[in-house]
From TrEMBL:
<feature type="domain" description="Methyltransferase type 11">
    <location>
        <begin position="58"/>
        <end position="174"/>
    </location>
</feature>
<dbReference type="GO" id="GO:0008757">
    <property type="term" value="F:S-adenosylmethionine-dependent methyltransferase activity"/>
</dbReference>
<dbReference type="InterPro" id="IPR013216">
    <property type="entry name" value="Methyltransf_11"/>
</dbReference>
<dbReference type="InterPro" id="IPR029063">
    <property type="entry name" value="SAM-dependent_MTases_sf"/>
</dbReference>
<protein>
    <submittedName>
        <fullName>Methyltransferase domain-containing protein</fullName>
    </submittedName>
</protein>
<dbReference type="Pfam" id="PF08241">
    <property type="entry name" value="Methyltransf_11"/>
</dbReference>
<dbReference type="GO" id="GO:0032259">
    <property type="term" value="P:methylation"/>
</dbReference>
<keyword id="KW-0489">Methyltransferase</keyword>
<keyword id="KW-0808">Transferase</keyword>
Length: 260
């Protein structure tokens, strides 16, 4: 299984990344967010999750294209995000990163609108209070660039454990997040954004494994020419694989978690 290695090195010329860009109708570019979407798409595709009748649950989906791509494969999707008023207060609506309904989740027309209506439901869910009615109901769960925004490092860790309850046995969870490349000691921890240190991720992985889950993770940060460039606010550069957040340089990391 090569995905975690290739993703860890952020090798953008690999077929899975090119295929992801084409499927998502995204211009090929060296962008962290695009890497996260392609990583999730490929991780679920490789693990045979993207077939009719599979049930998927997305958290903090914003306007990302993954919901519509999964529905176009015949998957039944519950796409969730935080309450609209709170999203506005936190700035997600103003930066076009919060959806109000199905149309916002299919902006690129990746899924036939009738199929989208039939297969996708949109619900308001706080990632810190996952409804019990979801427990044991899904083949896969995912989130992209979301669980670093739910309040604290501790809340992020709790979310990863709690969302596993939504999976059926044999299910797979794929989640991407912010990863601190500058320090394994200090980090940024604010209400709207945390950057996880390696030790935070290691603690999450240990807690997940203790519960009997199988975790795939690769911390390789990559040493290519694009990875040496650090984008700074207001973040309009290409490449945008590493970014400066306060005093820290951050990139993305992904976890693939199996429920046996
Ligand atoms: C950076 S945006 C990412 C959006 C989308 N996943 C993407 O990749 O474009 C962060 C998302 O997390 C959501 N979010 C933040 N806190 C949340 C919470 N407590 N519960 C649910 N969603 C939350 C926001 O509404 C927003 O959609």
């Amino acid at each position: 299984m090569l995905i975690s290695k290739l993703c860890g090195e952020k090798d953008f010329t690999t077929p899975w990344f090119v295929r992801g860009c084409i499927e998502l109708k995204e211009t090929f570019r060296y962008h962290r967010k695009l890497w996260e979407w392609c990583y999730i798409l490929e991780a679920l595709r490789e693990r045979s999750m993207l077939y009719p009748f599979r049930r998927g649950l997305g958290f903090g989906v914003g306007r990302e294209p993954l919901t519509s791509v999964f529905a176009s494969r015949g998957c039944e999707i519950v796409a969730t995000d935080m309450d609209a008023e709170k999203a506005k207060a936190q700035g997600w609506a103003d930066t076009n990163q919060h959806a109000l309904g199905l149309d916002d989740l299919n902006e690129k027309g990746l899924c036939n609108p009738n199929l989208m209506k039939r297969l996708v439901t949109y619900e308001t869910v706080d990632m810190n209070a996952i409804p019990e009615r979801y427990h044991g109901k899904f083949d896969f769960t995912w989130s992209s660039c979301s669980f670093e925004h739910i309040g604290s490092i501790e809340k992020g860790k709790r979310f990863l454990l709690e969302q596993m309850k939504c999976l059926r046995s044999g299910g797979v969870a794929v989640h991407t997040t912010e990863y601190n490349l500058s320090s394994n000691e200090d980090t940024l921890e604010a209400e709207v954004l945390v950057i996880f240190r390696k030790r935070d991720i290691e603690e999450m992985v240990a807690a997940l494994r203790q519960e009997g889950y199988l975790v795939e993770i690769d911390y390789t940060a990559g040493t290519g020419p694009f990875e040496s460039i650090v984008d700074v606010p207001p973040f309009h550069f290409n490449p945008h694989l590493r970014l400066q957040l306060g005093q820290y340089v951050s990139t993305s990391v992904g976890l693939i978690i199996h429920k046996p």
